[in-house]
Design a protein that fits this description.
Length: 304
């Protein structure tokens, strides 16, 4: 009976999506961009076994009411290259004053983490390096086309420059870092010194350790699911049973001069459960602080 109740609750929590509002202090952010509202969502896992369809529809409904300036999606939009088509209309209904952008994650390429790959990645201290194949190009092309139907611009190792008021902003996105499809050299070559704000989208938060100091002020990532199934630990942080091998489980971090936000994500993978890690989308209000000043601690909300 206890096991049935626990299973039922974990299924319920996996659907218990929340909208988190958080301030993200950005050193040197131009005054004209102070207060910019960024909706960050990750890990939809469309097509995964379980009830992800239901929680994705909740995400669309919630995001529609948030009225952000920008919507940024950080990968694993699909699960094992499954079809995003059932959600194109819903994603297309989302509006953002200055655009909708996305990057890809490992599941978008049909790649699941294996013990051997994780060991090699940790030994090398960085992502694996996979050759760019015809299959990879077809996957990117397919995802780009589906997202374009929803008005979402896929950033695949590329940057796009936008004008927000009188300020220049660059939105950059890399393909999956952990599995060797990221091209940081190419992205670095596209950066413009005139941009008052540079934001990087990466599925894996581990990319933060590879960035040149000052290249980006803001990094957004997902991949970890906030542990997905966690163990409460009174008086301390919860114990995350899985962070997909990353040292950055969820919330806000300051590394290499950048502030990074790691989302718990919307969907689930492997098992359709969550415990002590409710699915979330985050409305980030960018706030300016003087260059060189350390942002105040703003961790992820504790508990559920």
């Amino acid at each position: 009976m206890v096991g049935v109740a626990a299973t039922g609750y974990m299924l319920f929590e996996a659907q218990w999506l929340r909208l988190v509002r958080r301030q993200l202090e950005v050193p040197g952010l131009p005054p004209g961009l102070d207060g910019l509202m960024v909706l960050h969502a990750s890990d939809l896992h469309a097509g995964a076994p379980g009830f992800n369809t239901r929680v994705i529809r909740k995400f669309i409904e919630t995001a529609r009411s948030a009225e952000p300036d920008v919507i940024l999606l950080t990968g694993d939009l699909t699960d094992k290259k499954k079809d995003l088509t059932p959600f194109i209309e819903g994603l297309g209904s989302l509006s953002a004053r200055h655009g909708k952008f996305a990057c890809l994650g490992n599941h978008d390429h049909g790649l699941r983490k294996t013990v051997i790959e994780d060991f090699v990645r940790r030994l090398a201290g960085r992502g694996l390096h996979r050759p760019v194949t015809g299959q990879k190009k077809r996957t990117v092309s397919t995802m780009r086309g589906m997202l374009a139907e929803a008005g979402v611009r896929l950033l695949e190792n590329e940057c796009i420059t936008a004008k927000i008021g009188s300020d220049v902003v660059q939105f950059c996105g890399i393909d999956d870092f952990n599995y060797g499809y990221a091209d940081l050299v190419s992205v670095a070559g596209q950066l413009q010194s005139s941009a008052g704000l540079r934001i990087l989208l990466s599925h894996s938060p581990d990319v933060i350790g590879e960035l040149q100091r000052g290249s980006f002020q803001v990094v957004l990532a997902g991949h970890t699911h906030g542990g997905q199934i966690c163990v409460p630990n009174p008086g301390s942080d919860k114990i995350m049973l899985s962070t997909s091998g990353s040292n950055y489980g969820e919330g806000q971090f300051q590394v290499n001069g950048a502030v990074m936000h790691v989302s718990r994500g919307v969907g689930t993978t492997l098992v359709p459960f969550r415990f002590f890690s409710r699915p979330e989308i985050t409305l980030l209000e960018l706030r300016a602080i003087p260059a060189g000043q350390t942002p105040a601690s703003n961790p992820a909300a504790s508990g559920l």
